[in-house]
Specification:
Rossmann fold; alpha/beta
């Protein structure tokens, strides 16, 4: 039996917490509840206590509970902390690391996984501040469910509805299940980020790749038991758990690092490698001077994906990425054939994809094209990791 700590936020969707408790208990979980001040305007502590058959906690200032360090005990005894509904205000306070009531204090004190199910007005959900806060929580490791689209109590329509309770129960059950190590014993090489091709000691040729998608894929593969070698261009991102990381700067360094990492069962070439490098790197900073500078002489960089496709140690599954701004599928299909890759993951980067936290991709294979809806980059990584596990 798993212990779930359910935090009920303040919103009209709070009444669905009652149905959620029933569903969780029917699935064999024990539920303890924390009712926020806002939540208490919609459901009562007595209702939650009757459904959960446990005491409901409402305040940080309960003399008996806090004499026993109640918020610490509550946060540590659970196997999973669930916030449902997670309002815009509660999400903002979580993202800011506030601890000004019982709910936010135990969320800051817990060392257990946290899952939240947002519910709010469509404009509140789509507001840049909320999206920024959600991205922060995902970066902190919180599982954030996507709200449903539909009619709302306020009369508006769009994303922001609490996901169906059965969906939340399924997601909670999945979060509590032991990790499926479907890639145990496999070695996978992942490249991520941009490359920096020096012009002189202070300037370089680069692109806007953040490395977020590649790092998310490396993390998802490692969670499935793979031995992951992550060859990372110059990015400021933490190394995912259980991932072997090698930092490089240039395309030539990345190519050598990938070759040194072979043999591998699969390679996922996510990095946005510069196509060109400066042929003659200036030993000193180039000065503007009075006259126009001489044009830079460029040389083609090594094509890491194509080189890997013809390597004697070619991975069994070779996956390339195609970042395009127009005719995405045409270019991706041509690239797969030209480079000798098994799959190409293509996306349109003309918007806020590079540096952003979401992505809409097309998986191009010999069998055809599968288009995925716009998802958080972490969700794209999870889905791709499952596909890789199936293929291997």
């Amino acid at each position: 039996m798993s212990r779930i700590l359910l935090i009920v936020g303040g919103g009209i969707a709070a009444y669905k917490a009652c149905e959620l408790i029933r569903g969780l208990r029917a699935a064999g979980h024990e539920v303890r509840c924390v009712l926020t001040d806002g939540g208490a305007h919609f459901v009562t502590a007595m209702t939650l206590a009757a459904l959960s058959e446990n005491k409901v906690h409402t305040t940080l200032w309960d003399l008996k509970d806090e004499a026993e360090m109640g918020h610490i005990r509550l946060s540590r005894e659970a196997d999973l902390v669930v916030v449902c509904p997670a309002t815009a205000d509660l999400i903002a306070r979580m993202a800011g690391g506030l601890a000004n009531d019982l709910a936010t204090t135990l969320l800051l004190a817990t060392d257990k996984p946290v899952l939240i199910a947002p519910a709010m007005n469509v404009r509140m959900w789509l507001h840049p501040a909320t999206q920024r806060n959600v991205a922060q929580l995902r970066g902190d490791g919180v599982v954030v469910m996507e709200p449903d689209k539909g009619a709302m109590a306020c009369g508006e329509f769009g994303p922001g509805r609490l996901p169906d309770v059965s969906t939340i129960v399924a997601r909670i059950t999945s979060a509590l299940a032991p990790a499926v190590r479907s890639l145990e014993g496999r070695h996978i090489v992942v490249t991520a980020g941009p490359t920096h091709e020096p012009i002189d000691p202070v300037r370089y040729i680069a692109n806007r790749s953040s490395g977020k998608q590649g790092f998310a894929i490396a993390a998802a593969l490692a969670r499935r038991g793979a031995r992951v070698t992550l060859v990372a261009g110059p990015v400021d991102l933490p190394t995912p758990p259980n991932v072997i990381r090698q930092d490089v700067q240039t395309a030539e360094e990345m190519s050598k690092a990938v070759a040194d990492a072979l043999p591998a069962d699969a390679a996922v070439m996510v990095a946005a490698v510069a196509d060109w490098r400066v042929e003659d790197i200036a030993p000193q900073k180039l000065k503007k001077g009075e006259d126009a500078p001489a044009p830079l002489r460029l040389a083609r960089n090594v094509d890491i994906l194509a080189t890997l496709a013809h390597d004697p140690h070619r991975p069994r599954l070779l996956i390339g990425f195609a970042a395009e701004t127009e005719r995405v599928l045409d270019h991706a299909q041509a690239k797969r054939q030209r480079k000798g890759a098994d799959w190409i993951v293509a996306n349109d980067v003309s918007g806020d994809v590079m540096g952003g936290d979401a992505n809409a991709v097309h998986l191009v294979t010999a069998e055809g094209v599968e288009s995925w809806e716009r998802l958080p980059k972490t969700a794209v990584a999870e889905r791709l990791a499952d596909r890789i596990a199936d293929a291997l």
